[in-house]
Amino acid sequence: VSCEPGPSRRSSDIGIDNFQFTPPTLTVKPGTSVTWVNGDDVPHLIASADGHFQSSKLLDTGSRFTVSFPKGGTYSYFCSLHPQMQGKVVVAG
Fold it and tell me: How many CB atoms lie within 10 A of CB 24?
């Protein structure tokens, strides 16, 4: 059984499934664009916990939201509709 992401996801994608971000912490190189992909059957809204990027619009099932991370750091985010959903993008390298 493979645990690799399916063909619809890239290494810089974060899945939204079962009210969780997968992976919960994603490490990328500076300049990477990260895309959240909503696989849930309910809407989600991605928001930066520290104001480093603008919030997404409401993400329905299958919707995507992309943010570019030009410089190093740790960027915490959450779903503003379901605040228990939290994750981090770590930009290193």
Answer: 11
pLDDT in tens, 3-17: 444 446 689 999 999
For 52, the 3-state DSSP assignment is coil
Give 3-state DSSP helix, strand, coil % of the chain, rounded to 5: 0, 45, 55
Longest dimension (CA), the chain: 39
* pTM over cut 0.85: yes
> What are the phi and psi torsion angles at 39 (to 5°)?
-100, 0
Which sign does the torsion angle of CA 51, 21, 64, 31 carry? positive
Report how far Cα 90 is from the mean position of its chain's Cα atoms.
11
How far apart CA 76 and CA 86 sit, in angstroms, is 7
